[in-house]
Amino acid sequence: MTGLVAEVLSGSRRAVARLLTLIENDRPGAADALAALYPHTGRAWIIGVTGAPGTGKSTLVSALAAAYRARGQQVGIIAVDPTSPFTGGAILGDRIRMRDLSGDSGVFIRSMATRGSLGGLARSARDAARVLDAAGFDVVMIETVGAGQNEVDIVRAAYTTLVVEAPGMGDEVQAIKAGILEIADLLILNKADRPGAAQTLRALRTMLELGHPTRSAGAVGHHGAGALRSGSDSAPIDGEMWLPPIVQTVASEGTGIDEVMTVIAQHRVFLSAAGRRARLEGGQIALEVRDRLREALLTRLLRQVSSESIDSMVERIQARQIDPGRAVESLLATVDL
Amino acid sequence: MTGLVAEVLSGSRRAVARLLTLIENDRPGAADALAALYPHTGRAWIIGVTGAPGTGKSTLVSALAAAYRARGQQVGIIAVDPTSPFTGGAILGDRIRMRDLSGDSGVFIRSMATRGSLGGLARSARDAARVLDAAGFDVVMIETVGAGQNEVDIVRAAYTTLVVEAPGMGDEVQAIKAGILEIADLLILNKADRPGAAQTLRALRTMLELGHPTRSAGAVGHHGAGALRSGSDSAPIDGEMWLPPIVQTVASEGTGIDEVMTVIAQHRVFLSAAGRRARLEGGQIALEVRDRLREALLTRLLRQVSSESIDSMVERIQARQIDPGRAVESLLATVDL
What we know:
2 copies of one chain form a homodimer. By secondary structure, chain A is an alpha/beta fold. Chain A folds into 2 domains: 1-40; 41-274, P-loop containing nucleotide triphosphate hydrolases (Rossmann fold, 3-Layer(aba) Sandwich), CATH 3.40.50.300. The first copy, chain A, has helices at 2-9, 13-24, 30-37, 57-70, 92-101, 120-134, 149-155, 171-181, 197-211, 218-221, 257-272, 276-304, 307-318, 324-333; strands at 45-51, 75-81, 107-113, 139-145, 160-165, 186-189, 237-238, 241-242, 246-248. In chain A, helix 5 (92-101) links the parallel strand 2 (75-81) and strand 3 (107-113). In chain A, helix 2 (13-24) runs antiparallel to helix 6 (120-134), helix 4 runs parallel beside helix 5 and helix 6 (120-134) packs parallel to helix 7 (149-155). At the A-B interface, helix 3, helix 7, helix 8, helix 12 and helix 13 of A face helix 3, helix 7, helix 8, helix 9 and helix 13 of B.
């Protein structure tokens, strides 16, 4: 394992790939390797990219990767699919990306799908980002499909989070996005040349105003919501606050990518000031510790409680002889952790 | 609390609403009330409804509720929004439903949004379904947006799970759905009068064939994939197997709703035979016990470990003096659970 760690630190793609497989399969040695690599992390900029299916996230991530490559940066991409809880199926977008970016050793792409365990995917993605960080990648993008709690957990490892939207999704979508918007440092309206873009843009602005009252009227009102512009909304920094700008892109044609890069850079500058990044990272680590404690405790418990006693408790619950809450209390009373 | 339990058992809507609020806010008394109600559960048929935003789930659930009402059944609806992790925002569809179904005391509708705790929403939804079950509702529908692990967890409380699709979502959607399809007992292609319906239908059939090899060629091939039919695919039961049929609906016009009702009834008959429902429920309870153990253990731990010692550990992790895995081990070494 020491050899593998040294190879990862030297930037070996093969070693990175091998370690990611160990992590994904929760193999012995993965934890030791992560521990050894951990002091070498904290240098890469971690970018989370999330949004509903069909918004063109993969294309956008490819375009951003190409733009970072053009600036001489090494780019790691972790494509997470939390919507395949049972099959662990391949991600379509990934194949497209492979075609566009393959052959460039400055880009490393890895797909991850759920393998059953709840929360395991968010952990694996976070650990994978650390491996890429330690291996010397300058930028690590964690891409995930969807807009639920799982996706929020997955992008929680990121410093800058992009939420991707596309025109032509119904009113329902707009109402739903109110929550996910709150994790966005940058909102991207991709496919901005499609019909309905102006309407979606208006809806997004309205929601941002609701979420960030200070940017209402004055801050947003002077922008026309008409034709496609490749450009962000108003200045994102207002004193102590970061106001998530909306950037319109047509990722398949490269339109708006420079603007996205600029806003990500602005956000990085914003976070670097006044100890903001340290606070963000501290909060992320606190959540991670809690999450790991929960898993470790369950593992300990399952070493002490026989599967027979759990099975018989399940039977009693099913027979309505005891309710699940009381059942768990009585199981806990028998163990000494 | 005893009074509240008695009122719930007598079917009081007001008592049900009060108890659901206690459950949602994790208030004292909620666990005791649930324990007291638990022996009275197991009579309602629990239906899970999930699917991407914009597929018309809410309209479909309303139409199904009306159809069950017309058959004299009491219907409870729990509308879960896991995509609002921070705001707990209202669900648009819910307002529409309220307008259609309000004034009918045989229908009870409750919206639930996340209030921060991971997994808490799935627990609340499951407990809410139990309250409605004990209160005498014949059918309880748990509706949730999305197609990720959280939604899988939420519908895990259901006996029959409907996955709703709509035409005109991109290829990416189709690839993604491979996982969610595996939880579907019934696939609904809603908005089946829209352009692209035939194409989406073909894609769904292809995926079902991949998932259920026995239904390939013969079982599916003889169905034309052309014009809108209000009807399911082939017979859903093949010996010991349930083959999820596809039903095309236009829920806003009531088209296909009778067919959906028929397939749900067939699935109920299927599950009632050969101990299938008991096995399904046993598996659900086993997962619930594991989930509850995990939460209870963390609560115990947090009673013993001071927030200062967790904070200082977070600081050491952030300073890269210790890695998160080792940090959790050393925290666990200090406690006696």
